C-alpha cells in the first residue's frame, strides 16, 4: 500500500466529469490534486482548477502542457476525447506513469494504439467506472447463457442531451458481454436502428437503442424477452459521482500494478 497521498493529474479538468474528480480528490485523504489539464485553446486555461470545479481555490492552474505536470503526478485520470486521450497516453508512457481512462467513442484503430501503449504502463480502461454497472456485466452473461436463444436480447440506454457519442460506451460493453456469452459476434448481430417494413426480428440479433434527453446522467436497461415473460435489469446513475469515485478507486489500485491493460473488473476483483 502507498503510505503517502497519491498524486493525481486530471485530464479534461474543466469538463463535467473532470470537475467532479477535482472536487472529490480535494475531499480525499488518500489522494491529492497534482495537476489539471485541458486542450489547447480551451477557455478555462489559466483558471484555478478548484474554482472551475466550484470547490474553492486549489492553487492548481489548468494548463495544456501534460509534460510539465508529469514531474508532479503519479496517475493521470482522463475523461476527455479519443484523440486527446491517446496523445496524453503517449506522454504518460514516455514518463512511465500510470493512467485511468474513462473516455468513450474510441475507434478500432485508436483502441489498438491504446492496447499497445498499455504494454508500457499500468492502465485501467473502462467505459463505465461504476461498481453497479461492472457487477451487472458479471451477472448478465450468465443470465444470457441460461436463457438461451429463446429469449430476445435488447439493450436500451439513455443519457443527457450533450453526450457526443452513441450508443454509450457502456451500452456497447454490455452488448459485447451479452454477445460473447451466447457465442455471437456483435459486429454481425448488433442492430442500432429499426424503421420501416423490416420483417420479423431475427433470433440472433441484439438490439441497442439510444435515448438522448435533458440531463439524464446515465440509464442502462438489459431486456431479455421470452414468450410469456420478460426480465429487465436496469442501472440508473443519479450522479456523476458514481463514475468519479470508481475512477479514484481505480487510481488507488493502478499505482500498485505492473504495466498492462486492466479494467474495472480487475479493480473490483470481479473476475
Layout of helices and strands:
Elements: E1 6-11, H1 16-27, E2 31-37, H2 49-52, E3 62-63, H3 66-70, E4 75-78, H4 82-95, E5 98-101, H5 108-117, E6 122-125, H6 131-147, E7 152-159, H7 169-181, H8 186-189, E8 190-191, E9 206-212, E10 218-225, E11 230-237, H9 241-254, E12 260-262, H10 264-267
Parallel strand pairs: 1-2, 1-4, 2-3, 4-5, 5-6, 6-12, 7-9, 8-9
Antiparallel strand pairs: 7-10, 10-11
Task: Note the main attributes of this structure.
12 strands, Rossmann fold, 5-stranded mixed beta sheet, Dihydrodipicolinate Reductase, domain 2, 271 residues, alpha/beta, 7-stranded parallel beta sheet
In a nutshell, what does this entry contain?
The chain has 271 residues and is of the alpha/beta class. The chain has helices at residues 16-27, 49-52, 66-70, 82-95, 108-117, 131-147, 169-181, 186-189, 241-254, 264-267; strands spanning 6-11, 31-37, 62-63, 75-78, 98-101, 122-125, 152-159, 190-191, 206-212, 218-225, 230-237, 260-262. The protein is elongated and about 60 Å long.
Overall description:
With 271 residues, the chain is α/β, with parallel strands linked by helices. It has 2 domains: 148 residues, Rossmann fold (3-Layer(aba) Sandwich); 107 residues, Dihydrodipicolinate Reductase, domain 2. The chain has 10 helices and 12 strands. It has a 7-stranded parallel β-sheet, sandwiched between helices. A 5-stranded mixed β-sheet has the order 8-9-7-10-11. A hairpin with a 4-residue loop joins strand 10 and strand 11. Helix 1 packs across helix 9, helix 4 packs parallel to helix 5 and helix 6 packs parallel to helix 7.
